[in-house]
Amino acid sequence: MQVSDSSSRILAGLLEARTGQQLTMSRRWRIETALAALLRERGIPSLDELITILVMGREPSLATQVVEALLNNETYFFRDRAPFDLLSRSALPKLMQRRAATKRLTIWSAGCSTGQEAYSLAMLFAEDPVKWAGWTIDILGTDVSEAVVRRAREGQYSQFEVQRGLGINQMIRWFEETENGWRAVEPLRRTVRFQVQNLLEPAPHPGKFDIVLCRNVLLYLNSERRGVVFDRIADAMVPDGWLMLGAGETVIGQTRRFEADSEARGLYRRTGTDLPQIAVGA
Amino acid sequence: MKTCLIVDDSKVIRKVARHILETLEFQVEEAGDGREALDRCEAKMPDVVLLDWNMPVMSGMEFLKLLRQRGHSDQPKVVFCTTENDMAHIRAALEAGADEYVMKPFDRETLHIKLQLVGVA
């Protein structure tokens, strides 16, 4: 199945219009793979036929399914490990002191895909119950894809997914066997919530997040949209909160709303400025 | 360089696992069953054993119990790597002294993280 330039452009336009994400040349090679299952499922014989149906607007739900299939939902539990160690070692002890009066923390996993990051955060707290006794920990996961948010809410993972990133003792403590694989236990599911949200739109309720994780999402946006997302996140955070990005992502040259935390490499703090961002290349 | 003993009666699995482990900079040895694995451990203890469950001659579980009974001071880490993927088997393996458990099928990332978790990668 060959993807022509014109087909690529149509699919790229659809993805960008619905999500703001770019289908860069480096991602175009996976169009065929990403859409193969959908074509099979819908009985559509070729990509050209799919494009024809999309352009004719004969099946509006198909466009949503195409967009969902094109999104990169790669994730796993405790992805890259070090960021979670950094949170445990640096950000959480400080927040524990600063929020001692309210005993409340709100954390946003922005671009949460199928929920592994949010559940990893939930495990961090659940594995230290004495330390966090009496605290309200509100963990919110959001994603632009309805399909992955649905899966995140279920907390249901295949055998392959559940062991990616989890030690075996963690896995059997926080997941139970089901007919279809492994499901997060109810006490863990209770501590996280998920909703559909486009990062380019206003941030989700309640805002005032203490920690925002937005990892491996911004790389799919152009610099102008990255600036918008940084603004949205900054507006939704408390002044002394932290932003965490993915490995290889940075705020440098992207926004004036955040600066690197000199005491905790890998974490970013809100700056004092509320000036509109100036994106490089925008 | 850390050493890993792959114990599996499937040549294909040993070949795939060897490839992954070599990219993770392990020196790899192979055994086709638990008995052969015990002999290899007696000769030279590896840092970690990647262990299948069902094998002819001696199963992975029998091997693990005998290995742990011998009480060598240089006990290797043992990572079960098997298609026995239910909670009962996992609990039995941990009780017998396994350090980690990988359910087949798996990918490089999964195995790498498991080896990091047991402190050999």
UniProtKB/TrEMBL annotation, chain B:
Keyword Phosphoprotein: yes
Record's keyword terms, sorted: Phosphoprotein
Residue ranges of domain Response regulatory in the record: 3-119
InterPro entries named in the record: CheY-like_superfamily (IPR011006), Sig_transdc_resp-reg_receiver (IPR001789), ST_Response_Regulator (IPR052048)
Pfam families, per the entry: Response_reg
UniProt-listed PROSITE patterns: RESPONSE_REGULATORY (PS50110)
GO biological process: phosphorelay signal transduction system
4-aspartylphosphate, modified sites: D52
Keyword Phosphoprotein among UniProt keywords: yes
Protein name: Response regulator
Natural source organism: Sphingomonas cremea
